[in-house]
């Protein structure tokens, strides 16, 4: 391998041609490889990182800090809470199961002061706690509905009277719950360290985003309460990144537990495999039989048939799309995998490619087989097909790639039946009208590349011989 | 035992007729050679017998039954192709057994037939090799073996030796003859090489441009060619042809050569034909070099010494080409002038117009 890669044209030393060849090879390699690497790295980024459109190549996140905004009797208080566990910071991105797995009550009971208020709201505990208080204290039953009542309905009830007599903590809880008080908020910010523009002393700051295209980044110091926003030169920011690989991008869709996705990815994968294998088998059989007839039999209208088949190559598939849809509908295979498999079964390019290859097989072989009492089917099966194997394999690979990557025919054939979705439709589904699950889409795109890559790795030697011999691309 | 009969067989491709009505009767067990120059239709004729080409008109009979419409597979013939046409993806064993499996012979029978044929043709050592791993001669044997195992009614050979080198060709020629001796099947063999035809055939059919020129035993064709084409085609070196006039005299018939020399013809062989322009044919071996006066003269232009015989090339006084073979080694040199006396019993006379032989049959 190494000897092959370091081969030179002359004796030992690299000549100009060597340099150019290696340069060209490296360029071509990178041209193909860089997008795949990019996709691979992005596919393990967290949903949070992708939504932020973080273009960094490294999957993972900056060290984060929580910025809390709490409304108090004496106005808004903005302060930072450090050292929160990851699950608290990422609470809104967790699945329902992951949220349920955490000991929220235990965590909250350890918190005090305004931090506790902000975290209670952030962790979604305001409503259950308020309902518990309403039930325990026997408060009016309209209180839970108060937030959504119309202005005239609110005027008919006396909320202040209802809340009178509660402890300050419960009073605050119910005021937040009924919307009399703005709820406390918690946002996750990036923790950076940078010199203070005034004093030059290194301090820690919370920033919402780091955009290297902007000269200044607005930041608040972490160790101060209600500090004003300071504009820090972006170049002076130092942020820690913790590499974090989001395997759940792969695990969730493959285990069927992805949030906000209505298609079953493993089902799509199975469908695609079935469509590809069955479709390719049918394609190879039909195409090679047609090619055998066109190359080895002499019959009236032979040239016309070939011309007709080749002429269909010149019609863009989009033009026949409506016809294909109508045909699928009329034959009742719409919505089933057959609707995807059958329309693409006979490919003119494949017939032509196999015919060109079969023309090179000597006629005497077929005549010898006829003298050997072989039936025409046997001649095809035992003589022509094995000898045309390089071309058939090459067409097989092309067919696999075509089938696997096809979006249009599945879209036409099974768009309304989610159980029959192929992988390409599935990928489309990750970006819906209301939700966008790009992190799943990137990961599953990566998964969808694996089969075609494997096919190429194992069958590439047939491609070179088959395509070279049949003069097709 | 199988006899093959062709009755006014014709073949056309579109409007072009390539075989113009051939009648041929090949008796059972005979080794028949179709010979002729390239494009004479001998391969087409063979392929029609095999069933690989349709017969446009006429009747083709095998053992008296008309087989025009019967497919190649059902005629029970076996063919050895010029290119051997061995199945390249199958082992030698599979090549031999393929035809037998197609007619659903029992496995044991196939095995014994393949092994017998392989032993007979001395290819039993490489039964498990692919054809690509064999030499030309070995492939040739496999191709013959593939025909032999079928135990066909008749064998058809389409120029099977043309891809072999000279030495191997002579050896294989002998083997095919031996095979015929042993099996006794009817065989039809196509070649453009008259030496192959002469050495192997029981009967030779000489073809030219889709017509049968003569059909007979090798020596019959050699000694009594029906026309100038057959006379020129059979025999090596080729027969000499000299323009002459045939003059029917009172007592005898005289052949007068262009330079005025007269040669008397025996009435036993030629009867009393009328006067006409003619061509005299004489084989190179039937000319004797003599010191005394002789009717033919030759200026030597080239000498080929083969050791056992010498071939002398030259021109007659009228600038016609002449070839003489002399037994043993010769002292004749280029430029010498030779007197040649033809063997009167070996003179052939052809009509100058129709090129047909004037000899009495």
Automatic annotation (TrEMBL), chain A:
Subcellular location(s) of the protein: Cell membrane
Membrane-spanning parts: 21-41, 273-294, 303-325, 337-358, 379-402, 408-430, 442-463
Domain of life assignment: Bacteria
Keywords for the protein's UniProt record, in alphabetical order: Cell membrane, Membrane, Transmembrane, Transmembrane helix, Transport
Topology versus the membrane: Multi-pass membrane protein
GO biological-process terms attached to the record: transmembrane transport
InterPro entries: MetI-like, MetI-like_sf
ABC transmembrane type-1 domain location: 269-459
UniProt GO cellular component terms: plasma membrane
Family assignment from sequence similarity: Belongs to the binding-protein-dependent transport system permease family.
UniProt protein name: L-arabinose transport system permease protein AraQ
Lineage, highest ranks first: Bacteria, Pseudomonadati, Pseudomonadota, Alphaproteobacteria, Rhodobacterales
From TrEMBL, chain B:
Annotated GO MF terms: ABC-type maltose transporter activity; ATP binding; ATP hydrolysis activity
A Pfam short name: ABC_tran
Domain of life: Bacteria
Annotated GO CC locations: ATP-binding cassette (ABC) transporter complex, substrate-binding subunit-containing; maltose transport complex
UniProt-listed SUPFAM superfamilies: MOP-like, P-loop containing nucleoside triphosphate hydrolases
EC number: 3.6.3.19
Family: Belongs to the ABC transporter superfamily.
Protein name: Maltose/maltodextrin import ATP-binding protein MalK
Naturally occurring in which organism (per UniProt): Tritonibacter multivorans
